[in-house]
Amino acid sequence: MLAAEGGMGEFKVHRVRFFNYVPSGIRCVAYNNQSNRLAVSRTDGTVEIYNLSANYFQEKFFPGNESRSTEALCWAKEQRLFSAGLNGEIIEYDLQTLSIKYAMDAFGGPIWSMAASPSGSQLLVGCEDGSVKLFQITPDKIQFERNFDRQKNRILSLSWHPSGTHIAAGSIDYISVFDVKSGSVTHKMHVDRQYMGVSKRKCIIWGVAFLSDGTVVSVDSAGKVQFWDSATGTLVKSHLVANADVQSIAISDQEDSLVVGTAEGTVFHFQLVSVTSNSIEKQWVRTKPFQHHTHDVRTVAHSPTALISGGTDTHLVIRPLMEKVEVKNYDAALRKITFPHRRLISCSKKKQLLLFQFAHHLELWQLGSTVATGRNGDTLPLSKNADHLLHLKAKGPENIICSCISPCGSWMAYSTASRFFLYRLKYERGNISLQRVSKMPAFLHSALQILFSEDSTKLFVASNQGSLHIIRLLDGSFKHLHTFPSLSGTVESMCLLAVSPDGNWLAASGTSAGVHVYSIKLLKLHCTVPAYNFPVTALAIAPNTNNLVIAHSDQQVFEYSIPDKQYTEWSRALQKQGFHHLWLQRDTPITHISFHPKRPMHILLHDAYMFCIIDKSLPLPNDKTLLYNPIPPTNESDVIRRRTAHAFKISKLYKPLLFMDLLDERTLVAVERPLDDIIAQLPPPIKKKKFGT
Amino acid sequence: MAALEEEFTLSAVHLGAGPDGLLGVEPSDRADQFLVTDGGRSVVLYKLSAEVYRIYSTQGTEPIVLFKEGAVRGLEALLAEPQQKIESVISEEEVIRWTKIFMILRHPILLFITEKHETYFAYVQTVHSHTLSKYTLVLGEEKALIQSFTASMDRKLISLITLCSDGSVYEALIPTHPSDPEKTQRVVRSLLLKGIVSGNARNGAAVATLDQDHVAVLGPAPEASKECLSIWNTKFQTLQTSKELPQGTSGQLWYYGEILFMLHGKFLTVIPYKCEVSSLAGALGKLKHNQDQGTQAVTRFVSWETSQECFQNSEQSKRILRRRKSEMSIQPEAPASKQLLSSIKKDSEKHIEVELRKFLATKRTPGCHAVIGDIVTGLLGRSKAEPLFYPRNCLAQLIQTCALSYSLCPGLMEVALEKKDVQILQLCLQHFPDIPESATCACLKLFLSISDSSLKEADVHMESVSASSDGAPEERMEQQPGAVENGSSPAEADCAAAANGRPPGTREESASSPVLPKRAALLNAVLHSAYSETFLVPHLKDIPAQHVTLFLRYLYFLYLKCNENATMTLPGIHPPTLNQIMDWICLLLDANFTVVVMIPEAKRLLLSLYKFVKSQISICSELNKIEISFRELQKLNQEKNNRGLYSIEVLELF
After folding, report:
1. To which H or E segment does residue B238 belong?
2. Is the residue at A13 inside a domain?
3. Where does residue A197 fall: left (phi above 0), alpha (psi -120 to 50 degrees), or beta otherwise?
């Protein structure tokens, strides 16, 4: 079948499912109301920032570290983010440079819990040794203020009274209420150890929430959600919600709704409702159960409009509360975020290599080949299978931030938070040899993004200080060519890079500011693309035309002509007409854009659940057009086909799709990661017997 | 609930042989190690210019020395300058009676109580800031001698609990930081528990605070002369547990970290103690998880607040309420009650009834709780003295005030059981939140054994019995108990029927109740009552076999009735729930299985129960099998979709 017939043509697709990527389980989530951002920490220490206003885009991340686990995460005033973990340190994150501002030992052994005061000016941590420590948040650091009365057991959960005068601390078998001023315990509330009639040895208070009327809500390992009166230290109400641990609790700012997560993967919604239809007396009632997780729900958060949960099964689930959503649009739909919103895979087209990035190692694979041909949907017999060439283990405890293989396949680079590595790859008679390029310059110690030029002679590195380095690669050595300093005094880091195939233009985008285009020939800033409200999710520069294609988190796609310093005609026409509503309702961001070497009118892009070839020569679809039409037009006449044909050619064949690119004119590579394969690598969930006892 | 665990005696060494008895038991830095000081065995003497009362060593601070004249010094300061003058703090003839040291934020605070001519003073010495404040303990009207002290600290207040020679326990709150340290202030004490030990204790009585709600009291019980150790819940004023100490004690009691120490005879005895606070149900020993929230069954556990609301709707805190209540009970009550109390002693039943109606019509004061208790005690007292006096109507009215509980008038149910008054017993079961399992079981025995003729006369609340079962014809009811009691039921035939696979006698049993409606109503009251399995099962063993069979048949009948509708509930206003029915079947079988299995009449019932359980198990196992098969199918489906890790495919885009 020939492309000239009007279709997009026929491709051989390398369907890759051997990228053995398993996301880390979610440990903590912290919601910030002012910025509408959600911080998520994972069991490997990674901290991610999601912008809930920007279509839940993961706009920032801090790489994890094996020696650091985050057990607690919280926002303080002026949107400062802190975490604490089992290594006993409190860490503050720099959201501008995407690095760790400082780490401070609390000297209380492993830290299990942390909470910022209602005013956001104080920080409280609960430690292994039973101490509760109060820190003052100063403009550039935190300062230890004092200890509260030491408890017998580790402090697993903390909550401030909204007035800031008292706190509740959950320990093992009891909850203590402290007076903040004196630091002494005013009440100790002992939790019944009974668990389904059997006395368990310990009852762990996994979470507490202190309400302004003095009620303390606790969740514990015996499956109970309990309401206590902190003034008298008495149990007011107990709900047995699970046969396993209830591990997390979060409450809305209005204190009329709360959410708890259990080890059985269930999330329960409790609401404060009137006892009878027109009475003032209100009561906490368990209203809705949600089962969006298969494993432990380790953490929950409550935004004004949604319940947020995460846990061992690695999904971040955002469940909007229908009664709080004003417009019943697509924002009211459930979101399940499983994969990172950035690329973990790079590709050498020339050598047909794929480089997979894991938390602590890299894998290099060579794709197989076939000589057979077939028709749409056929699986072709392999003449050569895919080959695992290299397994490179990163040194040290730090996670890999980014990695890249050069288009020619002879260079490979990766970076951790403190070290940058560049390797030369040599292929001799089927053997591969790896040689590290030593003596990297001192300024190259950490990169947020690495990119090789199309001819593999230049290396572009985005550092976390906002500057961009250009390095010339010679045979086995390198030379620092230039550094573009960060623009106009901002230290905002650049996260995405794109270089034009002719090697003349470099585009870079940060987390919030616009896209900057530099001239590599003249080594100066060429132009800045007009600012747009939503963060950039992918960037690419088209061959020949040097049109910069930009995808944003609100699913808008722009085409900007670099030579003309303006949006292209097509882009303007597209904006005028608007995207198809189904296109805008996709809930994963576009993570990669590429171009067809022979067809300048085609743009290839993909998200986790579809890939799309945009043919700019065809009419744009409007809301009445069928956007996604997978059925081949067999019995239809050419007239109908032409009438229904539009610019967006979508395939949903490959999912979840982590990477897709054109290897050559007629060959695609698609890297899938089926969810079942991830689940198979997780520990088995708690088995719930449906019938009998 | 609180419980005393098994006691054990510490070494066979005679202690307390010295003139002052045992001097003290103190905790050490290890949880399982305690320091015992015995007057007969210690020779410790510090010769200074003034006489030392006691030396305190607490962890984290230097030892503190208290002199007999009330001066306080740090030991190090004292040793550095041994010749320093020790001032006299307390006046002459004033003697230190009791002391205790507290720690507030690592700063020691010393409390000592002195006595001078039966007037007591409390001194609070803050060791670091050297501030001393003095308080006079106002004893109130009764001039009873204080026999024992104990104290606990709660942030800013020291709660001093005293046991007086009148057998009552009082509490006084002493601030740790005085508002005006120069002046002597007065501290008023309030009554916590009244008359819980006998006044004429030979060796004195002792009290110890266990936690904020519990005190341990050592001494002779009011009516018995034997000494015993008892745990009281001060919040709910209930006796939690007690233990007799037949060999006598020295009236000394220590408590550290859930362990009680006392001399029992000549030996130091250790009794570990466990208590869980924080709920009324827990305090009453009725804590049982309620699986299905939102059903009426919850109301069985009357919360303290709601029982208080019976009397008044004021927003005052419970603590104040309790204080006031106990104060009120000392003060003379309103005239209506006084008149009633006096009429109880001599007047006719009719007259008492009129007086009672008058009293109940008056506005409920906070103290009426205690007054109602007094009235019941008075009525019962007279009924004991005069066998013919039994004011049933008065008692019924009093129970329905919701003001009574089992612990407030333990004699009431006893008398009602004696008189076989099922009406009062039903009311008690419905209204008392704290009936012990032994009493519940005694009621059950009576309800099962009482003759039909006496049942007919009883005025029983029938709301828990559904209309369908109480509309049963009279004659059949006459037959039914007879068929059970004479043991001549055709069991063999039924067994044969069961063997043939037909559900034995299902039709007949579901159609008719094996007991009279009135008996059913009484049994339902038992089914509704709260209990703790471990305490109930031993009592159930005492029920005669034919009564067990009858009760089982009734429960099985209820179960079959439950099965008649989709919601698995019984008709009626307040019927027993399915869970209650099943729990009781299990309890009865647990307690009496070996007996029941031997009775021919029960064979039929057991067989049908066995068949029922067997069918349930097989249904569950079938369902589980289906679930597993589904999962396997799912897996197969997945495998079909799984195309391996790598393939090259052809794709055509249109």
Report:
1. strand B238-244
2. yes
3. left
Q: Is residue A637 part of a domain?
A: yes
Show the domain range for A262. Answer: 250-337
What is the CATH classification number for the domain harbouring A195? Answer: 2.130.10.10
Same domain, A174 and A292: no
A257-289: pLDDT as tens digits: 999 999 999 999 999 988 777 778 888 988 889
Q: Does A379 touch chain B (CB under 8 A)?
A: yes
Give B284-344 as a 3 state SS string.
CCCCCCCCCCCCHHHHHCCCHHHHHHCCCCCCCCHHHHHHHHHHHHHCCCCHHHHHHHHHH
Please, which pLDDT band fits residue A45 given cuts at 50, 70 and 90?
very high
CA distance B220 to A594: 93
A92 lies in the same domain as A238: yes
DSSP reduced 3-state for B388: coil
**A378-392 mean pLDDT:** 91
Same domain, A114 and A199: yes
**Gap between the Cα atoms of B54 and B20, Å rounded:** 14
pLDDT in tens, A476-535: 678 899 998 887 656 677 789 999 999 999 999 987 667 999 999 999 999 999 888 899
Measure A425 CA to nearest chain B CA, in Å: 24
| A519 in a structural domain | no
Kindly give the pairing relationship between strand A536-541 and strand B157-164: unpaired
| Residue in A14, A232, A239 nearest the CB of B648 | A14
**Predicted pLDDT of residue B335:** 62
DSSP A204: B
Mean pLDDT of A338-354: 93
User: What pLDDT, on a 0 to 100 scale, did the predictor assign at position B1?
Assistant: 52
Task: Indicate whether this model's pTM tops 0.80.
Answer: no
Predicted confidence (pLDDT) per residue in B475-519, tens digit: 333 333 333 333 333 333 343 333 333 344 444 444 678 888 889
Please name the residue that has the structure tokens 């049109």. Answer: A547
Phi, psi dihedral angles at B348 (to 5 degrees): -75, 165
CA pair distance A430, A174, nearest whole angstrom: 64
Look at B289 and A197 and tell me if their CB atoms are within 8 Å.
Answer: yes
Residue B493, H or E segment: helix B491-499
Provide the H-helix boundaries in B347-436.
349-361, 368-385, 392-399, 410-418, 422-431
Burial classification of residue B566, based on how many CB atoms lie within 10 Å of its CB (0-12 exposed, 13-18 middle, 19 or more buried):
exposed
Give residue-wise pLDDT tens across range A561-603: 999 999 999 999 999 999 998 899 888 999 999 999 888 899 9
In chain B, residues with a C-beta closer than 8 Å to the C-beta of A232 are 317-319
Share of chain B above pLDDT 90, in %: 4
Check CB contact under 8 Å for B651 and A653.
Answer: yes
For residue B490, give the DSSP letter. Answer: -
Of A249, A284, A306, the one marking the end of a domain is: A249
**Among candidates B279, B619, B652 on the partner chain, residue whose Cβ is nearest the Cβ of A1:** B652
> Among A210, A232, A249, where does a domain finish?
A249
Asked whether residue A520 is assigned to any structural domain, the reply reads no
Asked whether residue A127 falls in the same domain as residue A272, the answer is no
Say whether residue B650 is in contact with chain A using an 8 A CB cutoff: yes
CB pairs under 8 A between A and B: 138
For residues A143 and A217, state if they share a domain: yes
In angstroms, the CA A507 to CA A504 distance is: 10
Q: Looking at the 3D structure of chain A, how many domains does it have?
A: 4
Residue A173 C-alpha, separation from nearest chain B C-alpha, in angstroms: 11
Asked if A68 and A214 sit in the same domain, the reply is yes
pLDDT score of B275: 65
Do residues A184 and A296 both lie within one domain? no
Do A155 and A236 belong together in one domain?
yes
Q: Where are the beta strands (DSSP E) in A311-408?
A: 316-320, 335-337, 345-348, 353-357, 361-366, 379-380, 387-393, 402-405
